[in-house]
Amino acid sequence: MKYRIFGKTGVKISEIGLGTWQLGGSDWGDVSEKDALAILHKSVEMGVNFIDTADVYGMGRSERLIGKFLKETKETVYVATKLGRREWIENKGWPAKFTEKMVERDVVDSLKNLGVESIFLQQWHCIPTEMLKNGEPFELLEKFKKKGLIQHWGCSIESIEEGLICMEHPGCESLQVIYNIFRQKVSGHLLPVAKQKNIGILARVPLASGLLTGKFKKGHKFPEKDHRNYNADGTAFNVGETFAGVPFDKGIEFVEKIKEILKPSQEIPMAQMALRWILDHDEVSSVIPGATKIEQAISNIKASSIPSLSHSVHTQLEQLYKTEIEPYIRGKY
Ligand SMILES: NC(=O)c1ccc[n+]([C@@H]2O[C@H](COP(=O)([O-])OP(=O)(O)OC[C@H]3O[C@@H](n4cnc5c(N)ncnc54)[C@H](OP(=O)(O)O)[C@@H]3O)[C@@H](O)[C@H]2O)c1
Fold first, then answer.
1. Which pTM does this prediction carry?
2. Buried b (16+ CB within 10 A) or exposed e, 281-295
3. pLDDT tens-place string over residues 60-73
């Protein structure tokens, strides 16, 4: 495993981290506690030291499992969580504004779930652009940083515009963005600014919810409780979070073309190459693929040790994106 400096925090985090939306056990089907703990243990054994979660993944389940794991491991693990969407879920809409009381409740609950005294990284969880623009949510996190309950803060965002707004605040230390072969706009529009301002970049949905592993066929049916069923067209939340916003069957066609360029093999499967594509952008601090099975986590970690993709492969993928994929991307971008 290779490590990269996480922006202004100065901390070295693994270039492959672990996303744990799956461990909530709600939006990706069941993942048992035993399997979840096995995924966490194996990942950290293999060098992962950065884990991303959120208070709403299984309404605290993902955080609580990580808390349990932290008690069992001797390794130093940096855990990033998120806040903001609990209000949206529980009250079926955004609050008029976030108050100090709401933030305190969410921070304190995450601390309890994780079993820590201070949160390594707290992130706003895709809150509306207007709220980011007025800057109040940032000042609230500054308060909790001063109290020592959080060490660093950043934002999980949906569009380039939002990323640019967040980076204007001197306290913002990281951005979490949807970044993968399907969604390349980040490369030219966000990464150069982040590099110049020394902002840590976390690449989420790196496998386009599994599409970029090449394992699906057209017409695949996902279980009812899987967001790839109920949010394939953005019915429940931002369509970009599901298949990176690409219509599923169209995505399968793109994957065939991407395969021809990447030429995956038994030794280096497509998922590893898709993660490698992201890692080849050195502005990225960590790529955070999710996993429902231990084998997936093991395979994804290997993306850190395979060779970079060639210049020609990068150029061909950029061409494919510009000429064919970009018009199909849906959702705020
Ligand atoms: N708004 C936000 O802030 C936000 C939104 C989305 C995600 N995130 C974070 O980003 C993380 C990553 O994004 P994501 O989990 O949505 O999408 P992802 O990493 O692109 O896809 C994960 C899914 O791909 C499949 N997969 C992973 N590795 C595989 C492998 N080696 N071989 C075959 N299949 C594999 C698994 O699906 P199967 O179910 O088919 O096994 C897994 O559940 C999340 O866990 C979460 O921490 C944050």
1. 0.98
2. bebbbbbbbbbbebe
3. 999 999 999 999 99
